[in-house]
Amino acid sequence: MKKMLVMLLCGLGFSFSSGASEQRIEAYKAPFHVGETVMACGRVAQVSKGKKAHYLNLDKRYPNQSLTVLVWDSNLKGFEQRFGNLTKFKNQRVCVRGKITEYKNSLQIKVSNPQYLRLMK
Questions:
Q1: What are the residue ranges of helices labelled H in the chain?
Q2: Which domains occur in the chain, in start order?
Q3: From first to last of its 121 residues, what are the pLDDT tens digits of the chain?
């Protein structure tokens, strides 16, 4: 009975851990993961302000970026409370968790929660 219980618990632990892992990729590999939720990492080459959002372009400046991290202005307060001004990310390595989507022939991850954006040191 004890062996059966141990086997059952090990099996449950395996199923929980295998579902919780997420794929970590470099930003330049984003085209192979459109529609997937991943942790994408890259160097912020450009931070820019649009009409309703801030954009962090990874690896290269617009229009040649590998991936854009989009932060809507309506969510900006939380990011500024956690990180300060987003321009501090320029030339820094970041990782962002989210779903890769395509918009006007560019790839992006929309992030609304500052916990899904990490400054890597």
A1: 2-20, 76-83
A2: 23-120 (2.40.50.140)
A3: 444 434 434 444 433 333 456 799 999 999 999 999 999 999 999 999 999 999 999 999 999 999 999 999 999 999 999 999 999 999 999 999 999 999 999 999 999 999 999 999 8
